Structure to design on (225 residues):
């Protein structure tokens, strides 16, 4: 299947700093990417839908000014956690929708720890 | 909210078939059933999907009841590496995100 990468795989930062997470579709173009968050022992929760060339659509309860999403090309979407706090510590997972729209390929995830 | 219900956890002996059930009684005619799994601290991995016919690939088989209100994922010969959380998801085929429920935590025991 198609490959989606995330960078970094793990990041530790101080409270108040901003962290950028990259999501890349390596062998296909993705006009739509999704960002999920997963807390320990819980399921994945959709944060936002990222569409190439347009503004992201955020789920209810997700602050768009805190979680900045940029989808500037057909192979790259970035999630920036601004002014991170310990409660933002989580496993962040992106996925990319296939061009046919019938499959979703997930990245390996990024574990964010905010001290 | 997820449109599926699954048992919280299951055990299976190594080498035996693992049968994971999923109820989706409110499924619409144009909604597909997808199965993904997530091994600890990794992203979800696609397993299989289907609409109404049974499906088989190199990883698993998917059996969907005739009324489409439930399905079963079958791992024919479970190995220790199949220990994971298995998610059953229903969605319209094109363009939608997946809504993940809590899934079933499968433990394959030696």
């Amino acid at each position: 299947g198609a490959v989606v990468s995330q960078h970094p795989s793990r990041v530790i930062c101080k409270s108040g700093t901003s962290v950028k997470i990259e999501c890349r579709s390596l062998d296909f173009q993705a006009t739509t990417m999704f960002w999920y968050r997963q807390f320990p022992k819980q399921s994945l929760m959709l944060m936002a839908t990222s569409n190439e060339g347009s503004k992201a659509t955020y789920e209810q309860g997700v602050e768009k000014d805190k979680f900045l999403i940029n989808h500037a090309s057909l192979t790259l979407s970035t999630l920036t956690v601004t002014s991170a706090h310990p409660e933002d510590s989580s496993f962040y997972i992106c996925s990319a929708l296939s061009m046919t729209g019938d499959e979703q390929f997930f990245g390996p995830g990024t574990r964010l720890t905010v001290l | 909210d997820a449109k599926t219900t699954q048992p919280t956890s299951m055990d299976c002996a190594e080498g035996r078939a693992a049968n994971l059930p999923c109820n989706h009684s409110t499924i619409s005619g144009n909604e597909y059933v997808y199965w993904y799994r997530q091994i600890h601290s990794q992203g979800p991995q696609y397993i299989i999907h289907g609409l109404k016919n049974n499906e088989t690939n190199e990883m698993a088989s998917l059996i969907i009841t005739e009324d489409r209100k439930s399905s079963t994922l079958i791992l024919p010969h479970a190995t220790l590496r199949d220990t994971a959380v298995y998610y059953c998801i229903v969605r319209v085929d094109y363009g939608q995100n997946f809504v993940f429920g809590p899934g079933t935590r499968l433990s394959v025991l030696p």
The mean pLDDT of chain B is 92. Chain B touches chain A through 21 residues (CB under 8 Å).
